[in-house]
TrEMBL record:
Pfam families: Fe-S_biosyn. GO terms for molecular function: 2 iron, 2 sulfur cluster binding; 4 iron, 4 sulfur cluster binding; iron ion binding. Residues 18-107 form the Core domain. This is Core domain-containing protein. GO terms for biological process: iron-sulfur cluster assembly. It comes from Paramagnetospirillum caucaseum. SUPFAM superfamilies: HesB-like domain. InterPro entries: ATAP, ATAP_core_dom, HesB-like_dom_sf.
Amino acid sequence: MLIQSQDIPSGKEDKVMMNLTDKAIDVIREVCNGEYLGLRIMVNKGCSGFSYNMGLEEHAGEDDQVLEFSDVKVFIDPGSALWLTGATMDYVDNSSMGSGFVFDNPNQPPAPSATAGGGCSCAVKSCG
């Protein structure tokens, strides 16, 4: 598996350092198909860890960090940058589990213990 890293220009050390595999880059390039500028990655931190949301973008946001991997651009908002530093995004194609992007993220918080007692308090809304 080949991994491409971002080069951080001098004086820009606060920029997110994220890696993408060649397969992830190829899939993003194919999906953008010249119609979109790149892929936005957003991280939400919840009680059971991180969730990742992605979408195709036609332009960068004012505060976005723009990462370039070959001819592929990835847009990251300031709130997600902290959680993506050091992460690697790959694309897997697994016939039994399905295909999609996966993250190897050293910032991922440990899974909550079933016996810890803290956990998450979630409200359930009934429909009907």
